[in-house]
Amino acid sequence: MASGNKTSNAARKARIEEMRRAEQARERRNRILVIAGSVVAVAALVAGGVFVVKSQDGKKDDTASDSKSSGDSGHWSTGKDGVRTWTGKLSRTHVEGTVKYPMHPPVGGNHNPVWLNCNGNVYTKPVKDENAVHAEEHGAAWVTYTDKASKSDVAALAAKVRQTPYSMMSPYADQSAPIELSAWGHQLSVQSAKDPRVAKFFETYVQGAQTPEPGASCTGGTM
Amino acid sequence: MRKHIGWVAGAAAAVLVAAGAVTYAVAEDDGSGAARTPAADSADAGFARDMAVHHQQAVEMSYIVRDRTKNEEVRRLAYDIAQTQANQRGMLLGWLDLWELPKVSAKPPMSWMGMGDMPERGDGSLMPGMATDTEMRKLGTLNGKQAEIFYLQLMTDHHKGGIHMAEGCVAKCTVGVEKRLAQGMVDAQQSEIQLMAGMLKERGAKARS
After folding, report:
1. pLDDT at site A58
2. Could you give the CA distance from residue B143 to residue B81 in angstroms, rounded to a whole number?
3. Which residues in chain B have their CB less than 8 angstroms from residue A202's CB?
4. A33-60 mean pLDDT
5. Under an 8 A CB cutoff, do A163 and B126 touch?
6. Angle, vertex CA B168, rays to CA B165 and CA B172, nearest 5
7. Which residues on chain A are in Cβ contact (under 8 Å) with B103?
8. Which pLDDT tens digit goes with each residue over B110-143?
9. CB neighbours of B164 closer than 8 A, spacing ≥ 6?
10. B97/A209 touch (CB, cutoff 8 Å), yes or no
């Protein structure tokens, strides 16, 4: 009996021991599962977070461009001949995205790395300010017109631009006069293409003394 | 001591004479320099304006062909033309700057040569020899041998027009350094036309006209 007891005692101990081991094994397994699960969850959170931040970054590039500064400061002063001259600072840094300029059409400021082709190019659709400003930096005169400009004026100006390397032309909605002539730091509003000041503006400002980067190209820019 | 004073007086007199001579020379230079500055409608100014435009297209054409072929011979010629004509263009525009003259004129191109009423080819071809915008675009779509041949043909025409205009300056320009540059263009472009004729022949082609 005693031996029987002993035996059963020993057997019970063994069984308890076995159960404890099993319990420990289960606990260890659970712990591993919990840790592994946590690791996966944390990794997923990190990856998701990075993705969200990144995709927001992308969006920011597009929307933040609205608020990108031209780096310009100053104001217009108008000469006797009606030509406005920007008095102050015109910045010249290359930037991506949209730039907010203090004047329309812009006559200088930070701009896109790609210049607008200005080899007598006549554009029939609006162009990007940021490319056009770069062309002005290269010495181009920019003719812009609204839908208030007469068809014959638009045709006459287009003919002049086509014959004049270092000039360009495009429609432009956001300007006060029907026809504006712009060059780096200078602008002239005219009502008609026949205004004698148009020829004078071309003579003075096409590759004129105002050009910040003389000798730079009007080809090989925007395609 | 007296001898010493004599030396000083002599040196002072020499300095005064030299200063006077320099002043006189500078004044003289200023006077005649002002007279030498060409007028906006002169051959000197007209050639500087028009050849700067003419050259620009040769530069552009050469850049295009270098992107369209791997042929060393054509690429080297194009490199040479682009470098040379870009530099010469800079000289022409620089002179206009020095003379404080506009880069454009309300009169038609080559009026200074009596050719203001010449028929215009249009489509971006502003002066004789210049390619049209359509031809420039076509060059940008061709590849390899096709691009080489078309470039050599366009540049041959371009040089012919350029030589004709440069001869106008040789005959009419009054500024020595500009006349010499124009003569240099005539000589160099004539020799390049010969070179290009040979290159066209090697490619089983010839000049357009």
Report:
1. 43
2. 20
3. 102, 104, 106
4. 63
5. yes
6. 150
7. 166, 206-208
8. 999 999 988 878 999 999 999 999 999 999 999 9
9. B128, B129
10. yes
Nearest-neighbour CA in chain A from B58: distance (Å): 12
Best of B64, B88, B103 to mutate (most A CBs within 10 Å, chain A): B103
What's the confidence (pLDDT) of residue B6? 66
Helix and strand numbers (H, E) in chain B are: 6, 0
What are the distances in angstroms from CA B168 to CA A84, A168, B114? 39, 30, 10
- B38-202 belongs to CATH 1.20.1260.10: yes
Angular region, A167: left φ>0, alpha ψ -120 to 50, beta rest? beta
pTM (2 decimals)? 0.74
Tokens, residue A66: 């609205």
Q: Let me know how long chain A is.
A: 223
**Cα B138–chain centre separation:** 26
Nearest to A134 by CA among A80, A92, A192: A92
Return the CATH number of the domain spanning residue range A70-205. Answer: 3.40.30
